[in-house]
């Protein structure tokens, strides 16, 4: 029996009732974007219908209500990550912007030519390119943590990459391309032994397992709203207070200042506001709070256990398909089934299976260096969320067999 009431839970997601090409939607692209429950959608209606106002600066009722709801989400996120202080929670546009904030605010202030940043081969491009930009602009060196044939990070090689110039490790908690769960707690301890910091890209971990930034001892941790049953356009950067306080601002503008003058130096607001220039995505932040409370109501342990069952069932089922090769066979995986099929282009499979109502992702998943190591430029990726069912796994696998028969 499933550890959660999936049928009841599905009722909360209006989109799951729709059809695609006359077939019931089977949504297996959750690693790209998860769907939103009614209470998250309702948060937008409530905000724009009742208390839409700019935050922090108004002394009127609507502004107070909006500010309270916005800052309330900061506390919800703090608790979701088990951070010690809500000032350590910065709202961004998403994981990408969170990483760029660290690269630009912390990186530009702390990195000198020849300093080294360790990045794994299985990173999403958003945790590669910001460091490459700094390499070309500041002369820092990006070193690559290798990945083995199962899609597992090589920890011995990781240890060997450190030098007295290593300043930061940038690694994902869970790979979006293969689903590998990385030992970030151990990696953080190793980084700290070498006086380096660690930034964890948690975009694919936050939806599937409880995250405790203090237990991990992560210096920075990032995730996106639209992968945790919340809206697009909002994400989170957690950073240890002492680090954030010592960092200069990144973007300048309203909200992030204390006083602005042409005659004296402009002074900046305290954290977290120092890093939140301009009007934020207020409704999205408030709706993200609803999404995280929804997750907590269901329970991440139950969600992770159920997704594990779905992944196991799907892995066994598609392994029977002739000529199908799974990519990423790590012993510890979350949610993601990535594969290629002999004689069938990933793109063709994606397009044809959509005709049968099944949404999967095909392409490089913004992880070209990882795919290149495995000799492919695209895979098919099915990824699971709490609301998926074993019946959907079977519909997907049967549709896949049919599609492969058509293109071969
Ligand atoms: N990192 C990982 C591991 C991801 O899966 C994603 C989204 N695919 C990102 C970063 C980027 O997130 P966003 O596009 O929400 O900024």
UniProtKB/TrEMBL annotation:
Coiled coil: none annotated. Signal peptide: none annotated. It comes from the Bacteria. InterPro entries: Aminotrans_V_dom, Cys_dSase_SufS, PyrdxlP-dep_Trfase, PyrdxlP-dep_Trfase_major, PyrdxlP-dep_Trfase_small. It is an enzyme of class 2 (transferase). Its cofactor is pyridoxal 5'-phosphate. GO terms for molecular function: cysteine desulfurase activity; lyase activity; pyridoxal phosphate binding. It catalyses: (sulfur carrier)-H + L-cysteine = (sulfur carrier)-SH + L-alanine. Residues 26-396 form the Aminotransferase class V domain. Its EC number is 2.8.1.7. SUPFAM superfamilies: PLP-dependent transferases. One of its GO terms (biological process) is cysteine metabolic process. The keyword Transferase applies. CDD domains: SufS_like. Keywords: Lyase, Pyridoxal phosphate, Transferase. It holds the Pfam family Aminotran_5. Belongs to the class-V pyridoxal-phosphate-dependent aminotransferase family. Csd subfamily. PANTHER family: CYSTEINE DESULFURASE, CYSTEINE DESULFURASE 1, CHLOROPLASTIC. This is cysteine desulfurase. It comes from Franzmannia pantelleriensis.
């Amino acid at each position: 029996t499933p550890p959660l009431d999936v049928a009841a839970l599905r009722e909360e997601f209006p989109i799951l009732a729709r059809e695609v090409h006359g077939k019931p939607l089977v949504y297996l692209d959750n690693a790209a974007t998860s769907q939103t429950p009614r209470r998250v959608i309702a948060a937008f209606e409530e905000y724009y219908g009742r208390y839409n106002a700019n935050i922090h600066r108004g002394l009127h009722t609507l502004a107070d209500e909006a500010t309270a709801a916005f800052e309330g989400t900061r506390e919800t996120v703090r608790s979701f990550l088990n951070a010690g202080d809500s000032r350590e929670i910065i709202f961004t546009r998403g994981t990408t912007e969170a990483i760029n904030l660290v690269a630009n605010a912390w990186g530009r202030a702390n990195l000198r030519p020849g300093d080294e940043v360790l990045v794994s081969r299985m990173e999403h491009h958003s945790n590669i390119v910001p460091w490459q930009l700094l390499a070309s602009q500041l002369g820092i060196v990006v070193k690559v943590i290798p990945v083995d044939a199962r899609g597992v990070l090589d920890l011995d090689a990781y240890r060997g990459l450190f030098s007295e110039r290593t300043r930061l490790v940038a690694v994902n908690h869970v790979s979006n391309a293969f689903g590998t769960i990385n030992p970030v707690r151990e990696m953080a301890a190793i980084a700290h032994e070498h006086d380096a910091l660690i930034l964890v890209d948690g975009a694919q971990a936050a939806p599937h397992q409880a995250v405790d930034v203090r237990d991990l001892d992560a210096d920075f941790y990032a995730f996106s709203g639209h992968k945790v049953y919340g809206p697009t356009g909002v994400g989170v950067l957690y950073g240890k207070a002492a680090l954030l306080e010592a960092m200069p601002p990144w973007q300048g503008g309203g909200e992030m200042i204390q006083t602005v003058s042409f005659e004296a130096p402009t002074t900046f607001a305290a954290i977290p506001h120092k890093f939140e220039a301009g009007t934020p995505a207020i409704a999205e932040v408030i709706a993200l709070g609803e999404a995280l409370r929804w997750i907590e109501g269901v329970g991440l342990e139950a969600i992770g256990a159920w997704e594990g069952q779905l992944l196991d069932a799907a892995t066994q089922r598609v392994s029977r398909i002739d000529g199908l090769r799974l990519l990423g066979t790590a012993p510890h995986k979350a949610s993601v089934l990535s594969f290629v099929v002999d004689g069938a282009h990933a793109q063709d499979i994606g397009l044809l299976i959509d005709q049968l109502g099944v949404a999967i992702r095909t392409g490089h998943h913004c992880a070209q260096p990882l795919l290149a190591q495995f000799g492919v430029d695209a895979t098919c990726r099915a990824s699971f969320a709490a609301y998926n069912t074993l019946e959907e796994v079977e519909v997907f696998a049967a549709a896949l067999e049919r599609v492969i028969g058509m293109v071969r």
